[in-house]
Amino acid sequence: MAKKTIEDLDAGAIDGRLVLVRADFNVPLGARGRVADDTRLKRTLPTLKRLVSHGARVVLLSHLGRPGGAPDPRLSLKPVAKRLGVLMKMDVAFCPKTLGAAANKARSKLKKGGVLVLENTRFHAEETANDPAWSEALAEGAQVFVNDAFGTAHRAHASTEGVARAMRRAEGEAVAGLLMEHELRFLGEALDEAARPFVAVIGGAKISGKIDVLKGLVRRVDRLLIGGAMANTFLVARGLDVGDSLVEEDQVAVAREIMSVGQEKVILPVDVLVASEIVPGATTRVVATYEIQAGDRVGDIGPDSVELFAREIGSAGTVVWNGPMGVFEVDAFAGGTLTLAEAAAKAADDGCMVIVGGGDSIAAAEAAGVTNRLTHISTGGGASLELMAGAVLPGVAALSDREEEA
Ligand code: ADP
Ligand code: MG
């Protein structure tokens, strides 16, 4: 069922109200604790600006890094609050506590249209433990909870899932922010009714981090194109020798299981680019996947595979892509990924819905210069993968349902 968003709230539900917002401010920090990349902050601006312009008193929660349940000054959200103020062109207050007397005081000092950032939620073990009492305390005094942290929606933590339930128990609203709504629309609703053929392109280094996604996708899609180092493990599962390439021996059985579900769906590379070392300037050879020799390392998919994959992408109604086809960081092994990125952009130009997620995949799309031609670039790594695979995200499930229009 569709979830309520901030657009479903009456003006009266926001004006002058204390609105608790969970954002994803898990940004990379650079020298002297400065925000090195503020993309995630910018993505939350539509939600924050809307709340501010409607007179909310905005209290922001986020995690940053992995402090492990104890305060770590290097992972303070203070520099984030500062940068947010610059982006919003207003004073953004910061409180060095997440909860307790100091936080309550800072909350009560908030004026209409004011914004306050509380300290890193993961400075407290209760956050990842999803402690109900702690969630209640976060929700106390607020009338609305807005979850805009798509990137952490696949985790049931106190500031994502717990607080939403606490807010609803207290008869308050728990709704999706605009970024969250956007991601759910593309990765959730749109994929539930994906135009066919539905093609998934999955690559990257490891199967292990993406097992559930592969298992979910193989049931949902018409074609599962597999590249990257991940393909090596599938090739081994098919009885081929991949030389000295990266293989996850402990995942061969999983690869076999995935292929048994969708025999005709899973498409592996037919040729690959190999070298004795995956380094800049390496001497490369194109070989068929049954001709890989001892000492060879697979660095990219080969030209016949690129053509095969591009043909599938070209005839698709929907494409989801996560994970590069090769070691695209090294020029000699970037060709497969970049050529397919162009093929995906061409498909999108022609009306195919193309969705790309994953940090390295987005970097690859940027390197190929195609990002603005794609239908949707997802901000969430694990969350976008789980949603693509058809999973229900706990941070989303906990939000209020939208009343169906009669
Ligand atoms: P994403 O961030 O898009 O989810 P991943 O993090 O899963 O993608 O995988 C990206 C990494 O996979 C890149 O660093 C890339 O170099 C690596 N990779 C891709 N193909 C290979 C390969 N054949 N051998 C070794 N590493 C590979
Ligand atoms: Mg990555």
Low-confidence stretches: none
- String of helices and strands: EHEHEHEHHEHEHEHEHHEEEEHEHEHEHH
- How far the N terminus sits from the C terminus, by CA atoms, comes to 15 Å
Number of strands: 15
Which structural class do you get from the secondary structure elements? Answer: alpha/beta
Helix content: 25-40%
The share of residues in extended strands comes to 15-25%
Mean pLDDT: 95
Principal-axis shape: elongated
**Spatial ordering of strands, largest sheet:** 3-4-2-1-5-6
Radius of gyration: 23 Å
Sheet of most strands: 6 strands, parallel
Molecules bound to protein: adenosine-5'-diphosphate, magnesium ion
Total count of helical runs of at least 4 residues: 15
SSE layout:
Blueprint: E1 18-22, H1 39-53, E2 57-61, H2 78-88, E3 92-95, H3 101-108, E4 115-118, H4 125-129, H5 132-139, E5 144-147, H6 158-169, E6 173-176, H7 178-192, E7 198-202, H8 211-220, E8 223-226, H9 228-237, H10 252-261, E9 266-267, E10 271-275, E11 285-288, E12 297-301, H11 303-314, E13 318-322, H12 335-349, E14 353-356, H13 359-368, E15 376-377, H14 382-388, H15 394-397
Parallel strand pairs: 1-2, 1-5, 2-4, 3-4, 5-6, 7-8, 7-13, 8-9, 13-14, 14-15
Antiparallel strand pairs: 10-11, 10-12
Helix pairs in contact: 1-2, 5-6, 8-10, 9-10, 11-12, 12-13
Bound molecules: adenosine-5'-diphosphate (ADP) and magnesium ion.
